[in-house]
Structure formats: C-alpha cells, structure tokens
Amino acid sequence: MPAPTQSQLGSIVEALCQSEGLTGEHAPDLAEAIAETVAGALDLLLKQALVLPGIAVAPGSTAAPGRLQ
C-alpha cells in the first residue's frame, strides 16, 4: 500500500487549516508545506514497515547458535 502523495493530501490539509482559522496571504503555502512533510513522513514510515523482521548478522560471527567465536 503506497503512502498518499502531497497532491492527495493537499486539499485535506488546506481544509484543516481553514477550519482552524489559519488565514492570510501565505496560508496556502503553509498547507502545501504541511502536506509535503506529512507525505514524506508517511512514505518513510511505510518503507520501514516493509523491511523484513530480524537482526542482520555478519556471516561467521558465531560458530554455532548461542556460541561466540
């Protein structure tokens, strides 16, 4: 499942900013920046969630299970 993009989140964030009373000349720019930040954060989160579980171990670091060399 891919993360939502900035363009998908833009209208939602802009509506949330307006509902909270954020107005002004740069309000749309603020909404765009928030949407970009949230989209990037969600993308990173989902990429990390797709990593297979387990601990990477260098080959040859143990002689046998539970026994260090």
Q: How would you describe this protein?
A:
With 69 residues, the chain is mostly helical. It has a domain at 6-50. It is 54% helix and 7% strand. It has a two-stranded antiparallel sheet with strand order 1-2. A hairpin with a 2-residue loop joins strand 1 (62-64) and strand 2 (67-68). The two termini are 42 Å apart. 6% of the residues are buried.
Task: Name the descriptors.
69 residues; mainly alpha; two-stranded antiparallel ribbon
Helix/strand-derived category reads mainly alpha
What is the 3D form?
rod-shaped
Mean pLDDT: 82
Largest sheet: 2 strands, antiparallel
Q: Order of strands in the sheet with the most strands?
A: 1-2
Distance between the termini: 42 Å
Summarize the structure.
This protein has two helices and two strands.
Describe how the helices and strands are arranged:
Blueprint: H1 6-19, H2 27-49, E1 62-64, E2 67-68
Antiparallel strand pairs: 1-2
Helix pairs in contact: 1-2
